[in-house]
User: Fold this.
Amino acid sequence: MAINCNVCFYDRNSDKNQFCEVCGSEIQPSITLFEAGEKGIQEGEKQTVLQTDQQTVNFHQRINQNINNNPVTAPVYTNIQTSSPPTLETAKKAKILPKNSANPTLITGTIAKLIPKQVGSPVPEFIIDSNNALIGKFDPNIGPVEIDLDGFYGDETVSSTHAEIYFENNQWQIKDMGSTHGIYIKPTGKTRFGYRTNKPEILNSGDEIAIGKIRLLFLII
Assistant:
């Protein structure tokens, strides 16, 4: 096999020659690209093996160090008695309080007031400081009511015992007492009154109540 000279590039030197036949330079044994690639792969495999071995040693060293610094102790179990789950009897004894349909927050105020929305109304406001108050007009056969709307504009639409406001189950409520022209409520934040109430309704502070034609603002103090 002929060997190339790395100096003059003469390519017919015998593979037994140590010096170039043309320029006399020392001939360095050359390798093909395939041999060079194969040699590089072998060296890379050796380096990878060395790195992998070193990483394995370091990994085991870290594990041993963590075990020494944080020894694992067996859990200790004690006989801790927990409360028994609630039974049906417990649920029956619990006092369940109703929630307002418009606002689920329970009302805690026990004093409220009604403010007429008429200009120049005979009474500026009605304070409700008891558990209940009748709304209507004075009738000699029945007697006075706590919230007397006689003299208000539209009082002809107010019955003698028109409605009752009362505090029950930690909430203010209103119910119709068999009036002729009914009760209407505009919940706070709404722009229109609802339909005529035919059952007790929960009141929120800021709701507007229509007793016949007379409109009142309900506020909790």
User: Anything to note?
Assistant: Residues 88-107 have pLDDT under 50 and may be disordered. The longest helix spans residues 33-69. Residues 87 and 106 are 26 Å apart (CA to CA). Helices lie at 33-69, 88-93.
